[in-house]
Amino acid sequence: MNADAMPTVLTIEDDETTAREIVAELERSGFSVEWVADGRQGLIRAVSGDFDAITLDRMLPRLDGLTIVTVMRNAGIATPVLMISALSDVDERVRGLRAGGDDYMTKPFASEELSARLEVLMRRRNGAPRQTAVLAVADLEIDLISRSVRRAGAEVRLMPTEFKLLEFMMRNSGQVLTRTMIFEAIWGYHFDPGTNLIDVHLGRLRKKVDTPGLPVLIHTVRGSGYALRAPE
Amino acid sequence: MRLSELWRTTPFRLTLVNGAVFAGGVMALLGLIYWQTAGYMACQMDIIVVAEAHALVQGDPQDLPDRVRRAVAVDERAVEYYGLFSPQGAWIAGNVRRLPARAQIDGEPREFRQEGFQPGARALVQRLPDGELLFVGHDAKVLTGLRAIMVRALMISGAAIIVLGLVAAAVLSFAPLRRIETLREASREALKGKLGVRLPVSRRADEIDMLAGVANAMMDETERLLWEVKSVGDNVAHDLRTPLTRLRAQLYRVQQEARLDGADREMIDRALAETDGLLARFRALLRIGEIERRDRQACFGAVRLQTVLEHVRELHEPSAEDRGVTLETDIAADAPEVSADATLLFEAVSNLVDNALKFTPAGGAVRLRLLNRPAGPRIEVVDDGPGVPEGEREAVLKRFYRSQRTRTEPGSGLGLSIVTAIARLHHFRLALEDARPGLRVALDCWPRGLEA
C-alpha cells in the first residue's frame, strides 16, 4: 500500500452494469480498480491484501458477501470494506457491519457517494489513529476535551450539534462528505431525512466558522456535498 | 383454558344433550316396565280375589264365619283381607271391620282405595245367597315394593347419568379444546404478521382439521399474493430506479466535467435537483413497502422517547429558525421507555415535525410534546398552520395525498404515509386532531390490543 501511487480498489460485483458504473466512477475519482464478478474469485483476490479498499456486493453467486467479509476478517485482512446491497433494511445493515464491513450502501446509489465513502474509509484506515485532543485545519482549531473552537485565534461559540458536525468534518478534512454521510455520522440514524435539513445545519456552521474576511474553509461540492479544507 | 370455554364446546353440549336423551329413555323404559307390571299384577290379584271368594263361598253357609277366620289366620303375609257382614252391613267375621262406603256389590274385583291399604289394592264385595255380604281384598304390597325399587333405580341411574355425562363431556371436549388452543396460538402469530405460520393439521381429518386446512389454504393464497405484490412493487421501483440513477450519474458527470457557463450550468443543476427529487420519492415508496413488509418487530428494543425527541429537535431547530418558526419542546421526563424501533420512531417524529414546519407560517410555533398518559407515553406535534379539515384527515394519511392548499409546498406527499406505516408496525395509534387553530398529530406509543 504505497501512498504515492494511485490507490487500488477491488470491486466484487456480479451485475455487469453496476460494476461498470462503479469502475467508471472510481477511476474518475483517481482510483485504480480491479473488477471480479465471482464471489470465490473475489475472496481469493481480497485475501491477497493488495488493495487499499474493497467494494463488496452483498448478494453474490456461489459465495455470499457476508461470508467473504467474515472469512477476510478471520484471516486478519484489515482492508476497509464497503458493502453494497439492494437490501436496505436496518437489520441487513447491522448484519453487514457486524460481519466486519466498514460501511454499508444500498443500491442504487449516487456514484459520488461511493467514492466519497471509500475515501473516508481509506483515510480512516491509513491515517494514524487520532488520539490528539486538538484538531486543526489552517487557522481553525477545535479542542475535543474542553469542546472549544477557535478560528484565527478568536473563540467561536457552537451549539452541541454544530460542534459534532464540525468535529466530523475536521476529522475528515479534505474529503467530500455527502449529506447522507453527514446525517448518518451526526445523528446515527439510517434513512433519508429528506428536504434540505443538512444544508441548513451546514449553513449555520459556516456562518459561524467562515466569518467574512477570513478564507473559506467549508466548501460546497456541487452536486455532491461538502468538504472542509485548508485554502491552497 | 377456562371452564367457561370448556362448557361452551360442541362436544360438551352434544354429550349433555345425549345424556339427557338417554336419561329420558331410561325413565320411559322404567315407567313402561312399571305400568306393564302393575297391570299384570292387578290381573293376578283379581284372579286371586275371585278365587278366594269362590273358595270361601263353597260349602256350608253356616261355617262361613269360621272359614273366614281360618283364612285370616292362615295368611301369614298379611296381604289378604276378608270381611263378612250381615245384610245390613254389620260385621260378623274377618280382619276388615267395616264395609267400605260406596262399594259396588256385584262380585267384580276393582281397585280399592282405603286407608290402611296400599294404592293399587284390589277387592270385591259379593252378596251371598242368604243376603250376607262378603268382602275379599288383596293388598298391593308387592306392587308398592316394586314401585320403591323403580324410583330408587331411577334416582341412582339418573345421578349416575348426570355425573358420568358431565365427566364424559368434559373429557371429550378437553382434547378438541386443546387443539383449538394450539390453532388459536398459531393464528395469533399469523395475525401479528408473521409469515410462514400454518395451523397444525392432524391425521384424523376431522372437522377441526378440515377448518384448519381451509384456513391454511387461505394463508397460502394470501402469502402468495403478498409476495407477488412485493415482487411487482420491488420490480417496478427497481426497474425505474436503476435507469433514474444512471440518468442522475450522467447528469452529474456533465455537471462535473463539462465546462458550462451561466444558464446551461443552471439548467443542469435544476435537472439534477429534479432527478434527486424523483429518486427521493422512489426511495420513500420503497421505504414504505419495506416497513410494511418488515418481519415485524424483529429489531425492537427499549427506546427512550426523550432522547429520540431531543434528537429530532436538534435536527430541525435550525431549519425552523430559518423559516421564522419557533420549535418548542415540552418533554415529560418521567415518560417510560417503550418497546420500539428507535430509527423508525425517529423517522416518524422527524417527518411529523417536518410537515408541521412546512405548514406553519412565519412567526408561528410548532410544539413537540411528550406526554405521560396513564396508558403510556404520547407524542404530539402541534402546529399553528391551516390545519386539516375533518373530512380530509383520513385521506392525508394515504399515499401521495396532498391537500389542495399544500400542493405548492415541495415534498413527495409520502411523509405521513411513512409515519402511518411506522405506527402500524408498532401497533401505535396515529391521530389527527384539531388544535384550534392548526393541527395536532398524536402518536400514542402503546400497542393497541391485538385480540385473538
Main features:
heterodimer, A: alpha/beta, Rossmann fold, Arc Repressor Mutant, subunit A, 2 domains, 5-stranded parallel β-sheet, 4-stranded antiparallel β-sheet, 8 helices, 12 strands, B: 452 residues, alpha+beta, Beta-Lactamase, Heat Shock Protein 90, 5-stranded antiparallel β-sheet, 10 helices
Notes on the structure:
- The complex is a heterodimer of chains A (232) and B (452).
- Chain A has 232 residues and is an alpha/beta fold.
- Chain A contains eight helices and twelve strands.
- Chain A has two domains: 8-126, Response regulator (Rossmann fold); 134-228, Winged helix-like DNA-binding domain superfamily/Winged helix DNA-binding domain (Arc Repressor Mutant, subunit A), CATH 1.10.10.
- Chain A has helices at residues 16-28, 39-48, 65-74, 90-99, 111-126, 160-171, 179-187, 197-209; strands spanning 8-12, 32-36, 53-57, 81-85, 103-106, 134-137, 140-143, 148-151, 154-156, 177-178, 218-221, 225-228.
- The longest helix of chain A is centred in the middle third of the chain and has 16 residues, at 111-126.
- Chain A starts with 7 loop residues before the first strand and ends with a strand.
- In chain A, 41% of the residues are buried.
- Chain B folds into three domains: 3-144, Beta-Lactamase, CATH 3.30.450; 207-293, Helix Hairpins (Orthogonal Bundle), CATH 1.10.287; 301-444, Heat Shock Protein 90 (2-Layer Sandwich), CATH 3.30.565.
- Helix content of chain B is 55%, strand content 14%.
- Chain B has helices spanning 3-6, 10-57, 64-74, 141-191, 207-257, 262-293, 305-323, 342-359, 393-396, 415-426, and strands at 80-85, 91-93, 110-111, 122-127, 133-138, 301-303, 326-331, 338-340, 365-373, 376-382, 429-434, 439-444.
- The relative contact order of chain B is 0.07.
- The mean pLDDT of chain B is 83.
- Classes of the chains: A alpha/beta (232), B alpha+beta (452).
- Chains A and B meet through helix 1, helix 4 and helix 8 of A and helix 5, helix 6, helix 7 and helix 8 of B.
